[in-house]
Design a protein that fits this description.
The protein is mainly beta and 320 residues long. The protein is 13% helix and 45% strand. The strands form 5 sheets. Strands 1-2-3-4 form a 4-stranded antiparallel beta sheet, with no helix packed on it. Strands 5-6-7-8 form a 4-stranded antiparallel beta sheet, with no helix packed on it.
Length: 320
C-alpha cells in the first residue's frame, strides 16, 4: 500500500506540470525580471530620441571668485586724446601711463610703468609722416613732461620712455603741440621760471632740440597753461599772476615770435592772491576759453581781450 501511494503522488505531480506547460503557448518564451527591465529601458530611450529636442551647448569654463581682493586704481593726473580720437592716454599717480580704447569699454591696450620720483604731469600728442617704399603714413607720437624739468617720448610699442631731455627751466607745468601745414612739429613747454620754451622733436633720431624761448615776465610768474590756435598762428599762456598773454608767430618754419599787446586779466574778487588760470583752450574763430581757480569757465575775445561770457562751474567755486 505504501508503494502504491508513492506512485500516485508522482503521477499527480506530473499531471500538474503538464497543465502548467500547456497553459503557455508553444511560440512564447517566458520573460525574466532582468529582461523586462532591459525592454523598459530600451522603450524609454526610443521614445526620448523621438520627443527630446537637440541638446543645449554647454560652456566648459572655470569661474574664480575672490571676496578678499579690493582693487583701488591710482588717481588720474592727466588725460590726452589722440589726433584721430580712437585712443586716450591716461597718466596716473606713480608715473605710469595707460593707453585705452574708449570704443571697447576703455580696454587697456598698453601700459608704460613709471620711474621713481618722476610723475607724468603733462601729455601732448603729435603726428609724424613716415616714408617707406615711396609711401607715406602718419604715425601718432605721445610726449610727456614732468615737474622735474624733463621731457620724453612715450613709446607704447616698447613700453618705455625715449629721448629724455632736461629743459633747464624748472618744473614743466604745461605742454602744447604746435602744428601747421608744414611737416615740422614743435612742442611748447610752460616752465616754472616764467619762460615758454619751444622745442623740436627730430624723427627718427628721437632727440629734442630747443629752438627758442618766450618770456612772460620773469621767474616770479610761472606759466600754468598753454593754448595754440593753428589758423591764426597764435599762442596763449595762462600765468600765475592771473593774466592771459598772447604771442603771435610771424614765421612758423623759423619760429619767429612777437609778443602781442593784448593782455587779459582774470577777476579775483578783491583777493590778495591772484586767480590761477589752470586751463586754456583756443577756438578756430579766435575765442579763448579759460578755467580758473574760482570755478569759472570764461569765454574771451582773443583779438580784443574782452570778456564774452562767464559760467560758474559750481557754488563752492572749486577749481576748473
Amino acid at each position: 500500500s505504501y508503494c502504491t501511494n508513492i506512485s500516485m503522488t508522482r503521477t499527480s505531480s506530473r499531471k500538474k506540470k503538464t497543465k502548467r506547460l500547456s497553459s503557455t503557448p508553444e511560440f512564447a518564451t517566458p520573460q525574466t525580471e532582468s529582461s523586462k527591465k532591459k525592454n523598459e529601458k530600451y522603450n524609454r530611450s526610443e521614445t526620448d530620441k523621438v520627443q527630446s529636442p537637440s541638446p543645449v551647448p554647454i560652456l566648459d569654463a572655470v569661474v574664480h571668485r575672490m571676496s578678499n581682493l579690493k582693487y583701488t586704481p591710482r588717481s588720474i593726473l592727466q588725460l590726452a586724446t589722440s589726433p584721430i580720437g580712437n585712443t586716450i592716454a591716461i597718466a596716473r599717480e606713480g608715473g605710469s601711463v595707460e593707453l585705452v580704447d574708449p570704443n571697447q569699454k576703455f580696454r587697456t591696450l598698453s601700459i608704460i610703468h613709471g620711474l621713481r620720483n618722476r610723475e607724468v604731469d603733462c601729455l601732448a600728442w603729435s603726428s609724424f609722416n613716415e616714408k617707406s617704399n615711396e609711401t607715406s603714413s602718419s604715425v601718432d607720437y605721445l610726449f610727456g613732461a614732468s615737474r622735474d624739468g624733463t621731457m620724453f617720448h612715450l613709446d607704447f610699442n616698447q613700453t618705455q620712455q625715449h629721448g629724455v631731455f632736461n629743459v633747464g627751466g624748472g618744473a614743466i607745468l604745461a605742454l602744447e603741440t604746435l602744428t601747421n601745414r608744414s611737416n615740422r612739429r614743435f612742442l611748447a613747454a610752460a616752465c616754472e621760471d616764467g619762460r615758454i620754451r619751444i622745442l623740436e622733436y627730430t624723427y627718427p633720431e628721437e632727440m629734442f632740440v630747443q629752438v627758442t624761448s618766450l618770456s612772460v615776465g620773469g621767474a616770479s610768474s610761472p606759466v600754468m597753461s598753454l593754448a595754440w590756435n593753428e589758423k591764426q598762428l597764435t599762442l596763449y599762456a595762462g600765468v600765475i599772476d592771473g593774466t592771459i598773454r598772447k604771442f603771435d608767430c610771424r614765421n612758423f618754419e623759423r619760429q619767429s615770435w612777437k609778443p602781442s599787446n593784448v593782455r587779459i586779466t582774470v577777476e579775483n574778487y578783491g583777493k590778495r592772491t591772484p586767480t590761477r588760470v589752470w586751463a586754456l583752450l583756443a577756438l578756430d574763430d579766435g575765442t579763448v576759453v579759460s578755467g580758473d581757480s574760482l570755478g569759472h569757465v570764461q569765454f574771451w575775445d582773443g583779438n580784443l581781450g574782452t570778456l564774452i561770457q562767464t559760467y560758474e562751474q559750481n557754488e563752492r567755486r572749486a577749481d576748473v
